Description:
Elements: H1 8-24, H2 27-43, H3 47-60, H4 65-77, H5 81-94, H6 99-111, H7 115-128, H8 133-149, H9 153-169, H10 174-186, H11 190-203, H12 208-220, H13 224-237, H14 242-254, H15 258-269, H16 276-290, H17 292-305, H18 310-322, H19 326-337, H20 344-359, H21 363-376, H22 381-393, H23 397-410, H24 415-427, H25 431-444, H26 449-461, H27 465-478, H28 483-495, H29 499-511, H30 515-531, H31 535-547, H32 553-566, H33 570-582, H34 588-600, H35 604-617, H36 622-634, H37 638-651, H38 656-668, H39 672-685, H40 690-703, H41 707-717, H42 726-738, H43 742-755, H44 760-772, H45 776-790, H46 796-809
Amino acid sequence: MTFKPGSGRFCIIAMSAFLLLSACETSEERAQRHFETALELLEQGDVSRAAVEFRNVFKLNPEHKEARLVFARSQLEIGERAQAYNQFLQVVEQYPDTLEARIELAEIAIDVQNWEEAERHGRAAQKLDPESSRVKTIALALDYAQAQRDQDNSAASDQAELAEQVLAETPESMIAWRIAIDQKLRSGETLAALKLVNKALEVHPDNLALNSTKLRLQLQEENLDAVGETLQVMAQKFPENDDIRSMLISWYLERGDLDNAEAYLREIAEAPDATMAAKMTVVRFLLEARSEDEAREELTRLIASEDNNITYRTLVASLDFEAGAQAEAIAALVELVAEGEMTQERLKAKVILAQMLLQSGNSVGARASVEEVLEDDATNVDALKMRAAWLIDEDKPDDAIIDLRTALSQAPRDATILTLMARAHERAGSRDLAGERYALAVEVSLQAAAESLRYATFLTQDDRTDAAKAVLDEALTKAPDNVLLLRNMGLLHLQSEEWNETTRIIWRLKALETDSGLTAANGLEADMLLRQQRVDETIALLEGLSAEEGSDSEGAFIALLRTKIGAQQVDEAVVMLEERMAGDADNLLLKFMRAGLHMVQDEREQAEAIYHELLDKAPGNANVLRVLNAIMIADDRADEAAALIDDQIEKAPDPTAAYLLKAERLERVKDFDGAIAIYETLYERNSNNIIVANNLSSLITTHRDSPEDLDRAYAIARRLQNYEIPALQDTYGWIEYRRGNFSEAVKYLEPAAEGLSEHALVQYHLGMTYAALDRVEEAKQVLAQAIKLAGEDPLPQFEKAREELKKLENQ
């Protein structure tokens, strides 16, 4: 049978032959064809279509090294650093000895101060090519960062000098500029730092960090005209940066120039290529500087005039929610997100819906909404931040860090992400990494008050008072009238007994002529006088303040009473208090103070009657409940105290204090499961409470044995390893013992046993650890001490101590 050229069967055979030929082409060959097409598109400047071809390459041949490198370079060139980083990362996972990828990864990590990743890739690059100039600069940055972490000023200074030598040869090295500038800043050489910044800006005029540093130094020098010029330049260079725009507006507002501020914003918002962000900035300005009504009018105009109005409608719902119409706002957003396809604007609306649900108490709905957002967009920054916060609270800091790294790759200068990362590292027990993140949050927020206060608090916890002062000082250059910043700076000076500096802060607070400023100033002044043992002057100051009209007079009066009691002037305090109560009979705080004075005068029945009255009017009050419970326990009325606590658990809006007292009672009667159940309840409500975390993990480790319980206790207690508090050291050390890490355990249990030398269980923990380490004589001595302190305590741990001691003595 013959076939004519035009017949259908001939076409089928020809097509089959073609398909057979195609099938013979390997996936690697097809991948290479896509790669070559991608290269051609890159040469034509068509980066977006080239990206599609690169993805086709990776589908067919995921290990195409050259394609990944070229794609990564192309993403770097267009500013897509997160995408570039991911591609370079895949290269080193497949080909660990790829120098180019290691260098790029290290440099990107250094730029965002992710020192953990910078160390990993930078040190790998050093091994591959230690003579490379870029590798040497990376190593220089790693060594400088380590010197700063070690507080080794000499080593840091040496590295900074080397950085300046690098700049003489390669002035384009941004890493070297940052080292040289940072060292000048840390050394207090402001003018030298500014000079270096200006030189660096000649090479890198569009670098945001350099421009921000210049601005900070000008603020520090209080050169407000130069600040305005710099802000205007930065606003032109970085039109999408809301922080810069906000600072420029603040600069206008400080001069009272509302009209020019609004005109500037509207000029941006009404440009032909104006973004939605620019239009939203006008709305925010109206909200903050004009009125909510004007902002709502602007939103109504935008909703009516633009087809894509999801963002504006979302903000209207947010305003309604804040105004108290929560149900209506939530309903509006539920309708909005269900209207059409899930665009980025609708995803943002869905995240805001989740935030509303969370605030209104519907955490299940909030979590479901966040998970739905992440199913549609796994890199959604706001959703990742919300999920990370939950993961931290659930003692899953490692999982939280994964989410936050993804978020950070999308928004590397988001202070909230960095703060959450710091919290996650703290929860994981990595205080060094937490400190770096808090510091970076301060930097990217341009020394904002909230981030600066948070970092200063962290530093103070580590007894780094001078560093905390430096942080607050920089923040005060940006916000010199911020009462919280000034008050906290004053408290640090007080703790250091720097009376002149404290006095200067007091003057600055009084000069603000605001109620909050005067309250803070008066509190600092009274505290300073008392610390200087100038009791009469303290009393005179407080008497004057308590006699004044104003919101602080009651606080001053209470402080006056406490000062008089401390000075043994109890009768005078009673007279003063009763006179005050005559004119304010229903004041609960005054009644509480009167009950306290009854206690000082050993009039316990009168005190107890007042405490009962206070609990009737303010159920669950922690201070009242603790004192009343202590009275009952001291009078051998344990059953009555237990009934009181149970009653308060039922009545109190916040029964935390009552639950804690009940847990303590259950521990005393050896009902450890009951105590654990209570601490679990409290921990679920607030996993950030260190005392609850310590008590819960300690009880689990002491009285439960399953691997699951030990894992749970460790997850809770990881954060405790950096606290030099004996009770917390004992908890963490014993958990390490239970996990078999005896050498690690002893580092915590020795200081714990020294600090709690009369606590039998703590001595038992150390003795058992010594035994596990074959430190026999020390084990015998400490276990004997534990048994002696325990007396007739029936806890099984002490029977085990006796058995272990007997075994050691028979060796």
